[in-house]
Amino acid sequence: MAVIFVGFRSKESYDSAARIFGKPDIISVTYDARTFTDVEDGDTVVFAKGTPKHIDKYVFDDSMEDKYLKFRFD
Questions:
Q1: pLDDT of the residue at 43
Q2: In terms of DSSP bridges, do strands 26-28 and 44-47 run parallel, antiparallel, or are they unpaired?
Q3: Which domain holds residue 31?
Q4: Which pLDDT belongs to residue 40?
Q5: CA distance 48 to 23
Q6: Domain annotation covers residue 7
Q7: 69: nearest Cα among 13, 2, 3, 25
């Protein structure tokens, strides 16, 4: 049972969610096909801005330097 954070862009929102749900096991920048397939029964998925209405068409490249985040997760 994993905790998965999706779409967090600020330290304040990340810290608020971490206080409630604990530190995440997985962090995903977008709700894309990779994130969708990582979720298993019993996992808790926490979205930064509500539940998305669709899965993003393109998969985010987690291997590159994350220029989209304004902070580093600890």
A1: 95
A2: unpaired
A3: 3-47
A4: 92
A5: 14
A6: yes
A7: 13
Structural domain includes residue 71: no
The greatest distance separating any two alpha carbons of the chain, rounded to the nearest whole angstrom, comes to 31
User: Which residues of the chain carry a pLDDT beneath 50?
Assistant: none
Residue 27: both structure tokens together: 């962090």
Q: Which amino acid is at 31?
A: Y
Half-sphere exposure of 41 (CA within 13 A, CB side): 0
Q: Which two tokens stand for residue 50?
A: 């509500």
In-domain check, residue 59: no
CA angle 8, 14, 16 (to 5 degrees): 135
36 phi and psi angles, rounded to 5 deg: -55, -40
How high is the pLDDT of residue 29?
81
